[in-house]
C-alpha cells in the first residue's frame, strides 16, 4: 500500500464524492438545515430525549405496519406464561418452514421430541443437538433448565454452548428449597424467583439470537436439514423407526408393539390372525413361507 | 495481502475516515449468540506483506455487532453491543478510561451504528427493539427515537449527501426513509418479500439506495419512483448480510453474504457481478471499502479472520 501523508488529527479529508456533483435530478428531500443536529431536531419539535420504547408502544407500531403482511413473533415476546416448562415446545414455531414432505415429517419429529425434552431434560441433552431444528429449540429448554449440558454439541456451530446453559440449570428450581419442611427457615425472599426469571430471560435471549440467525439464514438451515436427511437415508434409518426408537427411550408405548407381531421383515408370524394385513412389502425374503408369492398383492388368507 | 486473526468471530469491519491504514473490527464470542465481545483497532503496515498490528482492543460484556468511526474526532469509535448498549471509545485515552460513554436505551440487541458523514456531529443506532435512535455527542441521552418498523431494524444508514436524511432496513421487509425533522418516515419502500438485512446510499446519487435481503438478492432503488427497483443483483447463494457503495465509483458496490463470499457489483451494467471473492471459510458478515484508498476492501467473518486487499488481487495471497 502506498504511503500518503497522514492528515493531522481532527481534520477530516474531503470525501471523494463531495468533489462531484449529484448526477441525477432534484431529490425529494427538504433542503438541509443549518446548525447542529440536536438543534435542528429540537427546533423541529420532534425531539424526544432519552425515550425508551415500551412494549405497549410496540403494539401500536404493529398496527402501523402498512404492508398488511404478518410479521413473525419474536421468540422473546411469545407468551410462555400459561404453559409449563414443556410448553415451550408447543409455542415455538421454528418448524414452520419445513411443513411439507420429508422435511416436514422430520421437523415434526424434532418438535415432538423437543416438547418432551422439557420434561426429560437429560434425554433432551442427548438427542437435542442432532435434530437442530425443532429438537434444538425445544429440547434445548429442557436441557438448559434441568442442568443437562452438552446438547448443543451436535449442531453446526454450537460446541461450547452446552456448558453455560447447563450452568443455569445447576441452581435448579427444585434444588435448594423443601416446601414440606415444617421446621425450615422462613420462606425465602422472592429473589429466588426473580433469579429464575432472570435465567429464563437469559434462555429466551439465547434462543432469540439463534432464531434471528435462523431467520436470516433460512437457506443455509435448509441445506443443513437436507444434508441431515440424506445422511439418514444412507444409513437406512426410517424416520418413523427413529421416532419410535426415541419415544421408546422415553418410556412411551407406541405402535411399535404392533411391529412385534410381525416376523422378520414384516412377515406374518405363524398363527397370527392379523397377519394378512399390510403385506405389500417391497423386499420379501427369498425363503418365503409356503405360497407366499401367491398372495403378496392381495389379502388372501387361504394359505 | 495482510490477514488478522481475531479471537472471536468477526461481525463488522470499518475503515477509518482519517487514516488510510487504520481499521476497526467488531467481534463476538460464540458467533454472537452467547458470550463476550471485543473491539479491535488495527493498523495496516504501509509496507506490503507486513503483518497487521493491533493498536488497541476493548472488551465488552456482550457481543459487538457493529462499529462506526466518528467523522469529527479521529480517535472516537461507536460500538453497537448485543446487550442493548451503545458505547463510545476514545483511542487517545488509556484502556482504563474507556468506554468514555455507555448509553443504555435500546431494550434489545443493537445491530448497527452509522456516523453522520455530512454534519459529523451525530450518529444512528438500530436495534432489534424495532427502533432507530439518533444520538449527538453534546447530549447525555438519545435525541430522538424512530419507531415505525414492526420488526428488528438491522441497519440504518445516513444519506452521504444530505445531513438530515437516513434510511433504515428492517426484518418487516421494508426500508423506510426518514428526515430527522419530520415526525414520521417520509417514505416506506416494501423492498423485498423477505427480511432486509442492510441498506446503503449511493455516494454519488443521493436518490439511489441499495437493499440486501434474505432472499439472496440486492435491489437498487431510486427513491423518487420506488415501485420497481432500477436493478436487481442476483448471484449470492444465501442471505446477503451487508453491502456498501464504493466511495470512489458511482456504479460499484461490495456485498457479503452467508454464502461465505464477498462480491463486487456494477449495478449499471447487465452482467453486474464484477468479481467474487471466496476467501472466507465461514459466513462473511462484515465488509467495507476505504474512503481514502480507492479499491481497498476489508472483510471479516465467522472464521475469525480479517482480510484487507486491493480489488483485483487475491485476498488470501501472502
Automatic annotation (TrEMBL), chain A:
<dbReference type="GO" id="GO:0005778">
    <property type="term" value="C:peroxisomal membrane"/>
</dbReference>
<dbReference type="InterPro" id="IPR035463">
    <property type="entry name" value="Pex13"/>
</dbReference>
<dbReference type="GO" id="GO:1990429">
    <property type="term" value="C:peroxisomal importomer complex"/>
</dbReference>
<feature type="region of interest" description="Disordered">
    <location>
        <begin position="1"/>
        <end position="79"/>
    </location>
</feature>
<feature type="compositionally biased region" description="Polar residues">
    <location>
        <begin position="289"/>
        <end position="303"/>
    </location>
</feature>
<feature type="compositionally biased region" description="Polar residues">
    <location>
        <begin position="53"/>
        <end position="66"/>
    </location>
</feature>
<feature type="compositionally biased region" description="Polar residues">
    <location>
        <begin position="1"/>
        <end position="11"/>
    </location>
</feature>
<dbReference type="GO" id="GO:0016560">
    <property type="term" value="P:protein import into peroxisome matrix, docking"/>
</dbReference>
<protein>
    <submittedName>
        <fullName>Peroxisomal membrane protein 13</fullName>
    </submittedName>
</protein>
<feature type="region of interest" description="Disordered">
    <location>
        <begin position="284"/>
        <end position="303"/>
    </location>
</feature>
UniProtKB/TrEMBL annotation, chain B:
<feature type="repeat" description="WD">
    <location>
        <begin position="189"/>
        <end position="231"/>
    </location>
</feature>
<dbReference type="GO" id="GO:0005053">
    <property type="term" value="F:peroxisome matrix targeting signal-2 binding"/>
</dbReference>
<dbReference type="InterPro" id="IPR036322">
    <property type="entry name" value="WD40_repeat_dom_sf"/>
</dbReference>
<dbReference type="Pfam" id="PF00400">
    <property type="entry name" value="WD40"/>
</dbReference>
<dbReference type="Pfam" id="PF23609">
    <property type="entry name" value="Beta-prop_EIPR1"/>
</dbReference>
<dbReference type="GO" id="GO:0005829">
    <property type="term" value="C:cytosol"/>
</dbReference>
<dbReference type="GO" id="GO:0005782">
    <property type="term" value="C:peroxisomal matrix"/>
</dbReference>
<dbReference type="InterPro" id="IPR020472">
    <property type="entry name" value="WD40_PAC1"/>
</dbReference>
<comment type="function">
    <text>Receptor required for the peroxisomal import of proteins containing a C-terminal PTS2-type peroxisomal targeting signal. Specifically binds to cargo proteins containing a PTS2 peroxisomal targeting signal in the cytosol. Cargo protein-binding triggers interaction with PEX5 and formation of a ternary complex composed of PEX5 and PEX7 along with PTS2-containing cargo proteins, which is tranlocated into peroxisomes by passing through the PEX13-PEX14 docking complex.</text>
</comment>
<keyword id="KW-0677">Repeat</keyword>
<dbReference type="InterPro" id="IPR015943">
    <property type="entry name" value="WD40/YVTN_repeat-like_dom_sf"/>
</dbReference>
<keyword id="KW-0576">Peroxisome</keyword>
<dbReference type="InterPro" id="IPR001680">
    <property type="entry name" value="WD40_rpt"/>
</dbReference>
<feature type="domain" description="EIPR1-like beta-propeller">
    <location>
        <begin position="151"/>
        <end position="265"/>
    </location>
</feature>
<feature type="repeat" description="WD">
    <location>
        <begin position="146"/>
        <end position="188"/>
    </location>
</feature>
<dbReference type="GO" id="GO:0016558">
    <property type="term" value="P:protein import into peroxisome matrix"/>
</dbReference>
<feature type="repeat" description="WD">
    <location>
        <begin position="103"/>
        <end position="145"/>
    </location>
</feature>
<keyword id="KW-0853">WD repeat</keyword>
<keyword id="KW-0653">Protein transport</keyword>
<keyword id="KW-0813">Transport</keyword>
<keyword id="KW-0963">Cytoplasm</keyword>
<dbReference type="InterPro" id="IPR019775">
    <property type="entry name" value="WD40_repeat_CS"/>
</dbReference>
Amino acid at each position: 500500500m502506498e504511503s500518503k501523508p497522514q492528515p493531522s488529527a481532527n481534520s477530516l479529508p474531503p470525501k471523494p464524492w463531495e468533489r462531484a456533483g449529484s448526477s441525477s435530478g432534484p431529490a425529494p428531500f427538504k433542503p438541509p438545515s443549518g446548525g447542529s443536529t440536536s438543534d435542528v431536531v429540537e427546533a423541529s419539535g420532534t425531539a424526544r430525549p432519552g425515550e425508551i420504547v415500551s412494549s405497549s408502544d410496540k403494539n401500536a407500531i404493529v398496527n402501523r405496519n402498512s404492508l398488511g403482511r404478518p410479521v413473525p413473533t419474536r421468540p422473546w415476546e411469545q407468551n410462555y406464561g400459561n404453559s409449563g416448562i414443556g410448553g415451550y415446545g408447543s409455542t415455538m414455531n421454528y418448524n414452520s418452514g419445513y411443513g411439507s414432505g420429508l422435511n416436514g415429517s422430520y421437523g415434526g419429529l424434532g418438535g415432538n421430541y423437543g416438547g418432551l425434552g422439557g420434561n426429560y431434560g437429560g434425554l433432551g441433552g442427548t438427542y437435542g443437538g442432532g435434530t437442530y431444528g425443532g429438537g434444538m429449540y425445544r429440547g434445548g429448554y429442557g436441557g438448559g433448565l434441568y442442568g443437562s449440558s452438552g446438547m448443543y454439541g451436535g449442531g453446526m456451530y454450537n460446541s461450547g454452548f452446552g456448558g453455560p446453559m447447563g450452568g443455569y440449570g445447576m441452581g435448579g428450581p427444585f434444588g435448594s428449597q423443601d416446601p414440606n419442611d415444617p421446621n425450615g427457615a422462613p420462606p425465602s425472599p422472592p429473589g429466588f424467583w426473580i433469579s429464575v426469571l432472570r435465567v429464563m430471560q437469559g434462555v429466551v435471549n439465547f434462543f432469540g439470537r439463534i432464531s434471528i440467525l435462523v431467520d436470516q439464514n433460512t437457506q443455509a438451515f435448509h441445506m443443513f436439514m437436507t444434508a441431515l436427511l440424506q445422511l439418514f437415508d444412507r444409513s437406512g434409518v426410517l424416520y418413523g423407526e427413529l421416532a419410535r426408537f426415541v419415544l421408546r427411550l422415553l418410556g412411551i408405548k407406541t405402535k411399535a408393539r404392533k411391529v412385534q407381531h410381525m416376523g422378520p421383515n414384516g412377515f406374518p408370524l405363524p398363527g397370527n390372525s392379523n397377519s394378512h394385513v399390510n403385506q405389500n412389502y417391497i423386499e420379501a425374503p427369498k425363503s418365503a413361507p409356503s405360497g407366499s408369492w401367491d398372495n403378496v398383492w392381495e389379502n388372501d388368507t387361504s394359505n | 495481502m495482510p490477514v488478522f486473526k481475531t479471537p472471536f468471530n468477526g461481525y463488522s469491519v470499518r475503515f477509518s475516515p482519517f487514516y488510510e491504514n487504520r481499521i476497526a473490527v467488531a467481534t463476538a464470542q460464540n458467533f454472537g449468540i452467547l458470550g463476550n465481545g471485543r473491539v479491535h483497532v488495527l493498523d495496516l503496515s504501509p509496507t506490503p506483506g507486513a503483518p497487521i498490528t493491533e493498536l488497541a482492543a476493548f472488551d465488552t460484556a456482550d457481543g459487538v455487532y457493529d462499529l462506526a468511526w466518528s467523522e469529527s474526532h479521529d480517535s472516537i469509535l461507536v460500538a453497537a453491543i448485543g446487550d442493548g448498549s451503545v458505547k463510545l471509545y476514545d483511542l487517545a485515552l488509556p484502556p482504563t478510561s474507556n468506554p468514555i460513554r455507555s448509553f443504555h436505551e435500546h431494550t434489545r440487541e443493537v445491530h448497527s451504528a452509522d456516523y453522520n458523514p455530512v454534519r459529523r456531529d451525530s450518529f444512528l443506532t438500530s436495534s432489534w427493539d424495532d427502533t432507530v435512535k439518533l444520538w449527538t455527542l453534546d447530549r447525555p441521552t438519545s435525541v430522538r427515537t424512530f419507531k415505525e418498523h414492526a420488526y428488528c431494524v438491522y441497519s440504518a444508514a445516513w444519506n452521504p449527501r444530505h445531513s438530515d436524511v437516513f434510511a433504515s432496513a428492517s426484518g418487516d421487509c421494508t426500508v423506510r426513509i426518514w428526515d430527522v425533522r419530520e415526525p414520521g418516515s417520509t417514505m416506506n419502500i416494501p423492498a423485498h418479500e423477505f427480511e432486509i438485512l442492510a441498506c446503503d446510499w449511493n455516494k454519488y446519487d443521493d436518490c439511489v439506495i441499495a437493499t440486501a435481503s434474505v432472499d439472496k438478492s440486492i435491489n437498487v432503488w431510486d427513491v423518487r419512483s420506488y415501485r420497481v427497483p432500477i436493478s436487481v443483483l442476483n448471484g449470492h447463494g444465501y442471505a446477503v448480510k451487508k453491502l456498501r457503495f464504493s466511495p470512489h465509483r458511482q456504479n460499484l458496490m461490495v456485498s457479503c453474504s452467508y454464502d461465505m463470499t464477498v462480491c463486487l457489483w456494477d449495478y449499471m451494467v447487465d452482467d453486474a457481478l464484477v468479481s467474487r471473492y471466496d476467501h472466507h471459510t465461514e459466513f462473511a458478515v462484515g465488509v467495507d471499502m476505504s474512503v481514502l484508498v480507492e479499491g481497498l476492501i476489508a472483510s471479516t467473518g465467522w472464521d475469525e479472520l480479517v482480510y484487507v486487499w486491493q480489488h483485483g488481487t487475491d485476498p488470501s495471497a501472502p
